[in-house]
User: What shape does this take?
Amino acid sequence: MDAGEILPVMEMFYTIQGEGYHTGKPAFFIRIGGCDIGCHWCDVKESWNANLHPLTQVNDIVNEVSKSSANSVVITGGEPLIYNLEMLTKTLKSKNIATFIETSGAYPITGQWDWICLSPKKNSPPLEENYQYAGELKVIVHNKNDLAWAQQHAVKVKKETLLYLQPEWSKREEILPAIIDFVKSNPLWRISIQSHKYINIP
Ligand code: SF4
Assistant: This one.
């Protein structure tokens, strides 16, 4: 596993990216099991225990992607950077498949990425060296305090990094008005909503 030849895959599916910069684009999702961050609002807690998810050869993962029409993958989790993702991303890119990742940034970045979505988590903030690689900074907003917290991360990314605030799903009705007001007052930020959940796709 250290060489990244096998990974605990929780699920793989071809769908439409519902959130962030690539919203609306078809993408093959690879959800890798294992996360020790422990966000209380996490909507994929079943991903946390890596031992529950079958160790899968990188070649088998890439074969599944190749069977679809996808030209990009989103590697998500869990926290995918717990693992060495060099071999997976290298193999995908050798087949001209773009590589996107969703990560808390709490672990060193491995792999070759076309797009990094850095989504900081309070329990385990990003490593300082990871901010510079973010194509987008996506902060999940659970309460109003998270808006000020988001600004603390925004000053650490490059100036061209896109800034997104995304309501935490269970609080969306309650928190959305505050996010809208915030974005209107701070126009560098954009709103990301989990559009896949509104159209009932994974
Ligand atoms: Fe869940 Fe992601 Fe937080 Fe891990 S980092 S607990 S997978 S929301």
User: Anything to note?
Assistant: Helices lie at 58-67, 86-94, 145-154, 172-185, 195-198.
